[in-house]
Each structure stands twice: as structure tokens, then as C-alpha cells.
Amino acid sequence: MTLSARDRAGPAADVPPPLSEDDVTPPASVSGATTPSSVPGAAAAALVAEFDVLIENQAPVDVVLRRAAELAECPAGLDHDGLGPLVAGGPAGAGHGGVPPVAAVRPLRSGGVVWLDRPGGARPLDAVLLERLAIACTVAIATRAGHPRLGDPGLLQLCVDDTVGDLERSRALDALGLAHSTPVTIMAVHGPPRSTAGIVAVLGGPARGVRATALGPVDLLLCPRPVPDQFPVPVGARVGVGPPGTAAELPRAWREARAALRFALPCRHPLPPYPEDEGVIVRAELLGGYALLPRLVTGADIADVDDVRRLDELAAEPGGADMIRTLVAVAANESLRKAAAVVHLHHTSVAQKVARAEQVLGFDLTEGYGRSRLMVGLMLQRIRGSAPLG
């Protein structure tokens, strides 16, 4: 996935001017501080500080690469779809070229890689240098027009990836204009093409800071404020909403949004309200212990559950989808009359469906334990069906 080529509309932020080639004062080589007599912690801190200056001054990619090559005392490069291969510190200075066969490489989360081509093997701080080079290049690509880019997939991925360091995530948040304390809502969306774009528009669009990008089979949608309980969802789409929180909590919120999506069902009408039994918008904070199921239960585990196999038999019968929807309402309500009101059926029709389901399942659906057992079976069936979204 490559970084978007579109810039955020509006006036540029009041930031220092981009760092140019003449602004870079060549200090002593940091790589030279990695001899056995050096202090590794101090050398690493000095290296981090060098890249912090580049990021704070919005250094362009070519300046970042040139500074990295000076610090590493070897060629440094970037191979990125949006910019092409770039090299600094090679025999001819800065230029273009692919990744050398034996180079040390670190991938960018926006796509592409940065690399060092050091003859004679890696030095102790090369891993730190590559990490900082990757961060600086990610930010430089995203800000090369002088301000952050909305919907930037690389920066959004950094914000939700719990394997990256706090500083790396902080830089991504800063580039997106988000403070750690900014209240945010994160959603996992799946549906037909343009579904997520429709929800972005409903929630205010890029002009109000709503961002979205695809992460595998699921779209990530980030809104810099709480969202209403109900909002229009395109037909065929489903939404998992992460718990309320701040930008600093995005990795956890994204995991929980993905878990909530596993319980969601495709929307059948474009306008709210969406009752809970329709499962169009599922909020993570309402799942309770059910949220553990997608994490702990595998498809093989579910295949061994007799109740799920029998629910599959009911789903395969004529009118099976209506049967399953009715059973969800029955499991969630203490009386058949209330369940009938939820699914807009006469209570005698619901009673007939319940009688058929009891015949197949082999237990009473009108008492508390039976309804709880039914709900567990239905939720296991649902998360098995949504496994590709996990």
C-alpha cells in the first residue's frame, strides 16, 4: 500500500520552513561513536536526536537520506512506489537506484523500504539508524507539501500498530494533527466498494478530520471526536466501533473495533435506526465477555459445537435467514411477544419458529438457561462466518 498523493486542503500549518541542503550542518559521525570504547546509550541518544531535528524541521526525503548516509558513513536509500528508488552517499552522491542485494533493510508501514549498504557487515547502531530513518522518511513523505495528508495510510497504520514504539506513534499522530489527548472514535468497516467513503461523508468528511484507509480486508475509519450511536450505513456494509478513548489508546481501540466487527451483520436498509438484533453497528464496549470469543475460539473449536451444527441445519432450511434473525430476538428477550415485536412478526409465527428450532436443537428456548445457551451458539455461528475479517 502506498502513501496517498493527495494533500489536505486548507492553509498550511504555522510550522518552521522545510530544511534545505544548506541548513544541514555536518556534525561528527554518529556511526563513529559505536566503537568498543563508546557508550551505547549515549550514542543511540545522539543518533535519535539527529533524526528528531530533521523531523522537527520537516526535512525533505533527499535531505533525510543524505544525513543518514553521513551518519552511517555508507550509502543510504529509499525504495518507495510514490517516489521511486532514491540513494544518497553512493559513489555518485545522491541519485536513483534499487535496493542493493546485501543491504540492511527496514520496511515502511506505508509501503516501500529504507536501507543501508554497508560493506563489511553491520555496526552496532545500524538497527537504530534504520528505525529512525524509516520514521523520518514516513513523516517526510507525508509532509512534503508542507502539511500533513488526510487519509494517509502509512500514518494511520502507525497510529494503530501496537508493535511500534511510542515515539514512532507520536510522530505519526503529530503528522496527522492529533494530540495524545484528542478524543477519537475508531471504526472497522467492511462492505461493498465505496461503503467507507459514504460513512466518512456522513461523519463530516476530510474537512472535519475524518480519515480512512484499507487495512487488508477491513477499512479503518478514524474520527477525531465521539460519533452518534446511530448514523446511516450503506446497504451491505457492517461496522465495528471501538471503545471511547483518546488518540494515545488507538492500538487497543483498533483491536476492539476489529473484534466488534466480527459480530456485525450486513446492513439491509440505508437509514437508521438499526436495532441491536440487526447487528449493523456493533460497539465494542457493549460486548462484554463475548469480545473474547474471536480471540480465543478457532473455527475448528466452533466446528465441534453441536449447537452450532444444528443452527446451521436451521439456517439451511427454506426461510433460514429469517429463522436465525428470529432466534436472535428470542435469545435476547424474556418473552416470545417481545421477540415478535422486535422482528415485526405475529407472536404465533414466532412460536412456530421456536417450536421448530426446539425440535432441531433439543432444548427449551423459553427459559433463561436455554436462551443463554442459544445466544452463545448464535454468536459462535456469527464469528465463524466473519472469520475472513479477523
TrEMBL record:
Transmembrane segments: none annotated. It comes from the Bacteria. Residues 325-379 form the PucR C-terminal helix-turn-helix domain. Signal peptide: none annotated. Pfam families: HTH_30 (PF13556). Gene3D superfamilies: PucR C-terminal helix-turn-helix domain. Residues 1-37 are annotated as: Disordered. This is Helix-turn-helix domain-containing protein. It comes from Pseudonocardia nematodicida.
